[in-house]
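Input.
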Amino acid sequence: MGYKNPAPAFTDITGHWAADNILFAASRGLLSGTSETTFSPNTGMTRGMFVTALGRLAGINPDSYKTGKFTDVKADAYYAPYVNWAAKTGIVDGTSATTFAPDKQITREQMAVIMKNYAAKLGYTIPKTLKAVTFADNASISSWAKEAVKSMQQAGILAGKTNNRFDPAGTATRAEVATVLRRFV
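Output.
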């Protein structure tokens, strides 16, 4: 996957732990800045934004996914074709049969599930390069996400946080998403 854009000059990532990952994702057109000069690395990422990045990574043609089933995904929203693609492909479920909550912040466990589904639907084999870790907050990982969290952790795509916590319900920041995308690639 080649560079689509010149490396952006984000002024708010200097010295940030994920600076290289952010530049990797931005220069490939997977993630955009929040302005010409900012990336807002510690800001949460929305569900719509996350699925858009995956659609860009997959190289889909947005024109092929004009319609979808979610009433809260407006047809003219930048993320609409990507959400429609991800739902049609079986990569994402909605928050109900007819809603997706595109502007809601994505949680770390939702990100794990979506990444696992993405890999499966696009035919990627997820490597098991690391030993499985039992996170200190393992009991708070939702039952529907446990397998995906384990899979993404063993592949080295998702890591825990301080004190061996996974923080499943915590918001995935823009920096974390950039890092996950780079590790996945």
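The mean pLDDT is 94.
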